[in-house]
Amino acid sequence: MTGPVTEPPLPPTPSGDVVVRFDRRNVWRTGWVLAGVVALAALARWVIDDGGSVIFTLIMSMLAAIAMEPAVARLSHRMRRGVATIIVMLGVLVFIIVFLLAFGRLLGEQLATFVKSVPDIVERAVAWANETFGASLTVQSILEQFTGGTAGLARVAGNLAGGLIGVIAAVLGAFFSSITFFFFTFYFSADNPRLRMWVARLVPPKQQEVFGVAWDLAVIKTGGYVSARLVLAAICGGLSSLFMLIIGMDYWLALGIWTGLVAQFVPTIGTYIAIALPVLVGLMGPEPWQGLALLAFALVYQQIENVTIEPRISAEAVDVHPAVSFAAVMFGAALFGVAGAFVAVPVAALMLSLFGIYSRKYDLVPELAALQAAKEHTKEQKKRTHRAKAAADPAGQTTTGDSTGQASTEGV
To answer: For bias kind Polar residues, which ranges apply (predicted)?
Structure first.
C-alpha cells in the first residue's frame, strides 16, 4: 500500500532568494478561469446586442417607477399600492393628453413648417459664412459631403420612402413598446416593497444593511434626479417658449420644448447645445435681432436658474461635479447607448454617496488643514456679507438668500 505522491523537497537556498515552483494544476485552473471570463463576456455582449431594446425598456421603466415613488408612497398610506400606482400613471397620461390636445396641432404645424424652411436657413447660413469669412461654399457641396452627391440623396429618399408596410410596422412597434413600458412601470412601482425584500434575501445578513442603504440612496438620487430635471425642463421650456412668443419668433413652441429638454437632460454642455439651435434660427430668420435677444435671455435666465431656481429644486437630489457628470455620461453612452447616458448621472451620484458613507477617512496634515480652514473662513465671510446685504436691503433678501444657498451647495 503506497501513500500519496509528494513533491521532492526543495534544496536549501541562500537567505533572501525566492523559489518559484511550477504547478500544472494552477495552469489548468487559471486557464479555466480565463475561459469562463471570456464566455461570460461573450454572453453579455450577445445579450446586450440582441436584447438591447428590452434592456432599454426595463431601465426606462425602472426610472419611471422610481420617479413616481414619492407620489405613490404618499397615496399608498390611504389605499392599496397598486391603486395608487394606477392613479399616478393615469394622472401623467391625462396631463400628456391635455397637452397634446392644447398644443399638439400647433406643435405639428410648427415642426412641419420648420422642416420645410431648413433649406432656406441653410442657404442663408452659407451666404453669411461666405460674406464673413470669404469662403466659397455652396449648398450642393455641403450636401455632397454628408450624402455623397445625387446618388446619396436618392438612397436617402429611397430609405425614407419605405412604403406603407414600413410605416404600419413602425407604428405597431411603437404601440407595443409603449404597452410594454407601461406594464413594466406598473409592476416595478406596485411591487416595489416585494421586489426589495426578494432581492434582500439574496444578500448575506451582514451585507443587508449596506443593501438597504444602497436601495434607499438609489431611490433618492435617481428619483430626485428625474423629478428635478423634469420640473426644471418644464420651467426652462415654458419660459423660453413664452419669451419667443413675445418677441414674435416663429416655431416658438417646438424650439421651447427642445430648449427645456436638452438643457436639463444633457449635463454640462446641454445648455449651450439647447440654445444654439433657437439662436441660429433667429439669426437666419427675417428678423436677426430675435436671435440676439434670445441669446441675451438665455444668458440671463441661466444665471437666475443657477442662483435661485435649481438650488431649491435639486439641492437634495444629485450633487455631482460637472466634470464627473460629463465623464459618467460619456462612459454610460459608450457602454449602453442612450439608456446608459440617461442613467449615468444618478448612478455616479449613488456610487459617490456610498463611497462617502463607507470609505475610511483620515485627518488632514497640517498644511492641508490650514488650506481647508482658510476656505471655510472665506465661505463664512461670504455668508456674513450676504446676510448684511439682506438686512440692509429687504427687497433683495430672497435673491441673496438663494445666492448663499448656491454658494453652500458648491462648497460641499
So the answer is: 396-412
